[in-house]
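Input protein
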Amino acid sequence: MAIRMGNNCVNCKNANDAMQCKIHEVKVSANYTCDQFDMKAEIQNERNCLTCLRYEGPTCAHPQKAAEGMLCSSWAPDTAA
């Protein structure tokens, strides 16, 4: 099962740092989403060996084949934005 970003207020560019919605002018949280949801542009989805937490580590599923640009079903993000 892949892990994906949710279409919720935490990932919406309409929510400011204080989790106040600029559209609805209310306090929001990760439990909310709406029809005006607009994904933050900063979120990246660069899924390859170089961005994988397991790359060159003991839990890498394919240590002999892992390389830049390669994708696999065991990919895990090395950082979270």
